[in-house]
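TASK: fixed-backbone design
INPUT:
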């Protein structure tokens, strides 16, 4: 059984994961309109992934005797000055989500809810991967700069950039 404090914190994380899905979806729409089909596909895929993170939390709350709440979401930004700005915002957002997960883990320890603490370890590991991926993509965008040929190749190749490749890139540092 979840404590009320932990149920409330988990419901807040459900909202954050839903908003993360919306952030990626908005970025996908922006990229698609700009003709960046590869970037759009990458973002659509990650929007779906964030929604799955939300659903995993929803099911957990409900299965533990709580009541998952689906709340109103803050509308994401719809315009970006360029890819570099967009991916910087994405990286910053992933850091925010990591901090939120860490705070949630802290609540599980305060509440002595070790089952939920254990459940959240998947999110802790997932956020390490998400941050590594966002950082890797941002680094690549920064390398390209204003090179149109590099941007074309990046757009073509981004769908092949996976969490595993980003993790292996950072493991070699």
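OUTPUT:
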């Amino acid at each position: 059984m979840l404590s009320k404090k932990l149920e409330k914190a988990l419901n807040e994380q459900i909202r954050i994961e839903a908003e993360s899905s919306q952030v990626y979806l908005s970025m996908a729409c922006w990229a698609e309109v700009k003709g960046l089909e590869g970037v759009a596909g990458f973002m659509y895929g990650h929007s779906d992934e964030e929604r799955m993170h939300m659903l995993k939390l929803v099911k957990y709350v409900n299965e533990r005797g709580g009541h998952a709440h689906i709340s109103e979401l803050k509308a994401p930004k719809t315009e970006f000055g360029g890819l570099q700005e967009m991916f910087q915002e994405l990286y910053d957002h992933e850091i925010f989500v990591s901090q939120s997960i860490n705070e949630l883990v802290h609540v599980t320890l305060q509440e002595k809810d070790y089952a939920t603490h254990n459940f959240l370890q998947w999110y802790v590991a997932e956020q390490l991967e998400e941050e590594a991926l966002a950082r890797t993509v941002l680094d690549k965008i920064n390398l390209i700069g204003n090179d149109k040929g590099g941007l074309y190749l990046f757009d073509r190749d981004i769908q092949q950039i996976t969490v595993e490749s980003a993790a292996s890139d950072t493991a070699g540092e």
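COMMENT: The chain has a mean pLDDT of 92.
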